[in-house]
Amino acid sequence: MLNCGLEESCQAPLNGQRAVNLWFTGLSGSGKFTLAQVVEEPLHPMGCRTFVLAGENVLRSLCGDLGYGLEIGLKTLPDR
Questions:
Q1: Residues 12, 28: Cα–Cα separation, whole Å
Q2: Chain-centre distance for alpha carbon 20
């Protein structure tokens, strides 16, 4: 387990809640993201902080300027 220096017991009071991670697995297009949104929706009115970490969200935030497609992919490959 990765130890980043802060124990959960120190972080929970700051956030006002315990950390929980829900990991949905399945094939592409099987509804993982939709299920995560359905689970997330009622949590906000309860005051829970949530974040859906999905492949597309990661691509947009980390690589939003890269785009998709063969031409873009070839541009992002390192020179050989």
A1: 34
A2: 13
